[in-house]
Amino acid sequence: MIDRRQIEGAVAAVAGPRATVRVEGDRVGVVVDATGLDPQARDALEASVRAAASVPGAEVRVVMTAERATRRLIAVASGKGGVGKSTVAANLAIALSRMGRRTGLVDADIYGPSQPRLMSAEGERPTARDGKLDPVPTPYGVPMLSMGQLVEPGRAIAWRGPMTAGALGQLVDADWGATDTLVVDLPPGTGDVQLTMIQKHRPAGAVIVSTPQDLALIDATRAIDLFAKAGVPVIGLVENMSGYACPHCGEVSDPFGRGGAEAEAQRLGLPFLGRVPLLIAIRTASDAGRPPASDPADPVFAPIAEHVAAWLADH
Ligand SMILES: Nc1ncnc2c1ncn2[C@@H]1O[C@H](COP(=O)(O)OP(=O)(O)OP(=O)(O)O)[C@@H](O)[C@H]1O
């Protein structure tokens, strides 16, 4: 049984009269009035309210009211293709949203826009109002826009730099309403889209995804370098496809090695945000448009999102 008074006391100690607590079953909802706070103070307050409201067995949701002046972008990048960047971006966005952040998702991967499928929004076309795109809703509470929604499905995108930059601008500067956090799934590598993203849209930070393998890590190091040179902080590294548990015998093997990204993060003095195991269930759920982070019991992406939210609160 959750003790509402105890939570109210703990929340009032950090947020004073700004916060209102509601408890329903094992769900704790806290609405916080963030009027007049700058983004950093707002994120710091959100983090301390969340900590104060967290009691064992409770699912906590913190909602910050009042429109914030600036929307913060989190770039999800990788040096190499196929390492699971889109999977991590979709699940990170959902996990952040489950934590109460108003999160949107931009699929800037012009070479393989996969978010409409991952987010179960295939075939949805965004409408435009006053020259601005309206993001499409998804079943996971995360509105999204994808390069894939701007072109005919299945058509290879062979755009030149300026067209790509224009399309990225349309996605990022769409009518995101009260969305306060935009997760941006970048194409792999260090090309035009990444440069435009960094120079024009100034992400608050970047999450780098790599497999534990040397080759992928070398490419990841290049991507890290690009952000570092442009003065965009790297929030940390995620190791994907780390360790494979055989669904039949349970034996754990390491097709791509294990721990490589964590060791690399340590070497570079960057935070390690967590590892995502190589699981058939992740691929089948992703293909079916049911991202694993939408499961309330998700043990993998929620802790990664906690790290990212804590970083945002501090920066
Ligand atoms: N941890 C995992 N376990 C099992 N399958 C995974 C995992 N991560 C990603 N996959 C699968 O690997 C494939 C590639 O993943 P994803 O599209 O996320 O990679 P990407 O780095 O975004 O690729 P691209 O370079 O094409 O943008 C997908 O089929 C996805 O479902």
UniProtKB/TrEMBL annotation:
GO biological process terms, semicolon-separated: iron-sulfur cluster assembly
Domain of life: Bacteria
Pfam (any one): ParA
UniProt: ATP binding residues: 79-86
An example Gene Ontology molecular-function term: ATP binding
Keywords on record: ATP-binding, Hydrolase, Iron, Iron-sulfur, Metal-binding, Nucleotide-binding
TM stretches of this protein: none
Family matches, as InterPro entries: Mrp/NBP35_ATP-bd, NUBPL-like, P-loop_NTPase, YlxH/NBP35
Biological role stated in the UniProt entry: Binds and transfers iron-sulfur (Fe-S) clusters to target apoproteins. Can hydrolyze ATP.
HAMAP family cross-referenced by the UniProt entry: Mrp_NBP35
Subunit comment: Homodimer.
Family according to the record: Belongs to the Mrp/NBP35 ATP-binding proteins family.
The protein, known as: Iron-sulfur cluster carrier protein
